[in-house]
Amino acid sequence: MRNYFKYLIIFICVPFLFNCINQKESEKNLTYQSVSMEEGLKIMSKSSDYILLDVRSLDEFASGHIPGAILYPHDDISEQTCETILPNKKQRIFVYCRSGRRSKIAAQKLIDLKYTNIIEIGGINNYHGELSK
Q1: Mean pLDDT across the stretch 7-15?
Q2: Of 37, 41, 49, 124, which has the fewest Cβ atoms less than 10 A away?
Q3: What secondary structure does DSSP assign to 73-121, as a single string?
């Protein structure tokens, strides 16, 4: 009878443990895609189902931003604010800043918050189109 309980416990626990390990592995593999500004704009031109996120400061955004971008400064990205600003964690989100440093930080923050479709496109310094103010 004791052996029966040992096997029963193993039968129940082993699949659960493997599931936990696989889940941890898949979470470790979450990453964002990084492409050039030019490539990002090409991808955006083929779709309308995305968000363009400017992660610079309010003053930088007001001085000129890519048309259609929404402001979400990288320092403000948190679990609480993301729920309101970016409710769909599967939404394709393009992220840019001035030079590319803050966009990488912001992209990683979003990945850490379990967003799954993040494309970092570098800095507005590499954008050659018209700006909105």
Answers
A1: 58
A2: 49
A3: -GGG--HHHHHHH---TTS-EEEEESSSHHHHHHHHHHHHTT---EEEE
Which whole number is the average pLDDT over 93-122?
Answer: 97
One-letter-per-residue 3-state SS of 21-56: HHHHHHHHCCCCEECCHHHHHHHHHCCCCCEEEECC
**Residue 78: per-residue pLDDT:** 96
Closest CA to 90 of 121, 108, 116, 56: 116
How many alpha carbons lie under 13 Å from residue 24 in its C-beta half-sphere?
6
Q: Are 52 and 128 in contact (CB under 8 A)?
A: no
